[in-house]
Structure formats: structure tokens, C-alpha cells
Design goal:
The protein is built from three helices and four strands; from the N terminus they run H-E-E-E-E-H-H. 11% of the residues are buried. By secondary structure, the protein is of the alpha+beta class. It is globular, with a radius of gyration of 16 Å. Strands 1-4 form a two-stranded antiparallel ribbon. The protein has a two-stranded antiparallel ribbon with strand order 2-3.
Amino acid sequence: MERHELRPIPDDNYRNILDHVPIACVDIAIYNHNNQLLMIKRGFASAVGQFWLPVGRAPDGWLRQGLYPYVERAVRESSALIIGEGRSLSRAA
């Protein structure tokens, strides 16, 4: 099998992909026992300094795995919180 070097997609090609291919994303609302909502202060992209819910993208394969692994990863990467099994999760479409 031939190996290919991985290279970033050029910006104009990537923008075209984003414009034409649906990408599954997750937005996560996490409340504590006092009904306080977790918000993350963004440090990247066009929303620097703004407060948002933890978010993440679910790449190819999410239909087989479900969205939970991407929810877990998005929360861990943006807040350092760990969502363990047994936690109550509900979803909204």
C-alpha cells in the first residue's frame, strides 16, 4: 500500500469543502447542581474573548460511534472536565 504525506488542505479548498459538505457538530450545555451553565471563554478563531458553550466537530465515522465520544472530547479539550460513564446526557436536535 502506497503511503502519502499528510499536508494541510489549502484554505480556498477547505472553504469550498465547508461550503458544500455538512459537518456534524456538537454544542454541549452542562449545568451543575446549582443550575449554573458552563460557558467557555474562546481563545481562537473569530470569537476570541467571547463566552460560548463547549463545542466540537464530529468527523467521519460518527454515525457508527454515535456523538458521545465527540461530546466527551469537546468538553475535555475546552474545559478539562471529564464526563464519565453514568452521567446523564440528553440530546436536542
